[in-house]
TrEMBL record:
UniProt keyword list: DNA-binding, Phosphoprotein
Organism: Streptomyces piniterrae
Organism taxonomic ancestry: Bacteria, Bacillati, Actinomycetota, Actinomycetes, Kitasatosporales
Ranges where the Response regulatory domain occurs: 8-123
Gene Ontology process terms (BP): phosphorelay signal transduction system; regulation of DNA-templated transcription
Pfam families xrefs: GerE (PF00196), Response_reg (PF00072)
Protein name: Response regulator transcription factor
CDD domains the UniProt entry points to: LuxR_C_like (cd06170), REC_NarL-like (cd17535)
GO molecular-function term, one example from the UniProt record: DNA binding
Domain HTH luxR-type residue range list: 154-219
Chain positions with 4-aspartylphosphate modification: 58
Domain of life: Bacteria
Length: 223
């Protein structure tokens, strides 16, 4: 129970029975469900007031689409983690959600246990995807890496990464979760998180999507 104690979660879905069931399952598992919402505009207002750590978000919402909700809230608060919980497994929906700032994407066919685990992992920044979607997302990272980058953080005078930060970045680019990186390098999960946050700060990047793109552009995923 200690993993989720005090972890604030908000559930957004336009179907009341589904929304209430998910909120109940999370509360019973020990999460602090701070708010729920049934449409996009309501979601933005309530999330800004309730300040959840994790937003469990449906994409198909009235008033404001889920991807817009995600983009707006993550843009205002990059520390917010968003787990999309959707009935759609369409590739375009998955990629749009990731590009809007979602940390993970889970289909509604997932079990309660899978949902609870996904929320826990999303909270610490691990990318969580329904099996079969992770490869799709990594492929999109690679595609993005062929496009011009919005910034050039490795210009002369830019902060240099330590050997350990570079090592962690290389494994992030290969698609490993923070837990897998911790096991590979025999360090704690928290240490991996710290290295990633330090790297984001040094390179003036905002999220994991930009970080992976940066790494792939420099060929670190093949190293």
């Amino acid at each position: 129970m200690s993993e989720q104690a005090g972890l604030k979660v908000m559930v957004v879905d336009d179907h009341p029975m589904w929304r209430d069931a998910v909120a109940r399952d999370l509360a019973e598992a020990g999460f602090d469900v701070v708010a729920t919402a049934g449409d996009g505009l309501q979601a933005v207002r309530r999330a800004q007031a309730a300040a959840p750590d994790v937003l469990v978000l449906d994409l198909n919402l009235p008033e404001l689409p889920g991807v817009r909700v995600c983009k707006e809230l993550v843009g205002a608060n990059p520390a917010l983690r968003v787990l999309v919980l959707s009935a759609s497994g369409e590739h375009a929906d998955v990629l749009e959600a990731v590009k809007s700032g979602a940390t993970g994407y889970l289909l509604k066919s997932a079990s309660t246990e899978e949902l609870l685990d996904a929320v826990r992992r999303t909270a610490v920044g691990d990318p969580v995807f329904t099996p079969g979607l992770a490869g799709l997302v990594l492929g999109e990272y690679r595609r993005l890496a062929t496009e011009p980058a919005p910034a050039a953080p490795d210009e002369p005078g830019a902060p240099q990464l330590t050997d350990r930060e570079t090592e962690v970045l290389r494994l992030v680019a290969k698609g490993l979760s923070y837990k897998q990186i911790a096991e590979r390098l025999v360090i704690s999960h928290r240490t991996v998180q710290n290295h990633v946050q330090n790297t984001l700060g040094k390179l003036q990047l905002h999220n994991r999507v930009e970080l992976v793109r940066y790494a792939i552009e420099r060929g670190l995923d093949d190293a």
